Amino acid sequence: MAAISFSQVSKAYADGHLAVNKLDLDIADGEFLVLVGPSGCGKSTALRMIAGLETITGGTLSIGTEVANDLSPRERNVAMIFQSYALYPHLSVADNVGFALKVRGEKREVIEEKVKAAAAMLELDKLLSRRPGQLSGGQRQRVAMGRAIVREPAAFLMDEPLSNLDARLRGQMRAEIARLQRASGVTTVYVTHDQVEAMTMGDRVAVMNAGVLQQLAPPRELYDRPVNLFVATFIGAPP
Ligand code: ADP
Ligand code: MG
């Protein structure tokens, strides 16, 4: 687990487009932080900078006590959970969950133990011998989370993980992800363009527009005291 801190962090793409503009954002150790804003406002760019999948063109990003600007993705020890959770279709749930540990060269007993613990937390115990094709969308999502949990990452990074699910399952998974995060206590940055997800899931919500952080506050405060018309309109609060 680790705190994540952006200090005046910017990202200018090669074409000169400033996707993230001097972002100041301190995410506490163990916090569930939701980054929300309209399409194209720079959410994924900010998340990818934490993961080390995008270079930082200005400012300082820290993960834990370390300046992360020049660390490789592996050195950052954060787990990105993507939109389309690419599970290996030919492997069982157990082997999918344990995959990263096997690649790391962990002993079989250690892998089994960690997979078992993750499966218990995610209620996947009875599904361990199935293949992804034999699972529902929600179950697959939990397997994807299991793959991240066994690595014991410093943080979970999620980029619109529910956008491929139908409305009913999305509602269910919102609660599920929030519960799991609280159970694991792992610092989580959750990106979405969905106001309902932001307002129901986050300890705090960071609202972005056009690369600029507009407001950082708990959901209730955003609703009661939006700092500007953009936040009020976007959140759907009375201005
Ligand atoms: P969001 O996730 O909020 O929809 P992104 O972070 O994906 O936004 O993109 C922010 C802005 O940066 C958008 O205007 C997008 O078109 C632009 N952008 C994203 N990736 C690149 C890239 N590789 N090169 C140039 N511009 C990019
Ligand atoms: Mg995005």
Quickly describe the structure.
The protein has helices spanning 43-51, 73-76, 93-104, 108-122, 137-149, 167-184, 195-201, 219-224, 229-235, and strands at residues 4-12, 18-27, 32-36, 58-63, 66-67, 78-81, 155-159, 187-192, 204-209, 212-217. With 239 residues, the chain is an alpha/beta fold.
What is the element layout, followed by pairings?
Elements (H helix, E strand, L loop, with lengths): L3 E9 L5 E10 L4 E5 L6 H9 L6 E6 L2 E2 L5 H4 L1 E4 L11 H12 L3 H15 L14 H13 L5 E5 L7 H18 L2 E6 L2 H7 L2 E6 L2 E6 L1 H6 L4 H7 L4
Parallel strand pairs: 3-8, 3-9, 6-7, 7-8
Antiparallel strand pairs: 1-2, 1-4, 4-5, 9-10
Helix pairs in contact: 3-4, 3-5, 4-5, 5-6
The protein binds adenosine-5'-diphosphate and magnesium ion.
The site of magnesium ion has 3 residues, from α1.
Main location: membrane
Protein name: ABC transporter ATP-binding protein
Organism: Labrys okinawensis
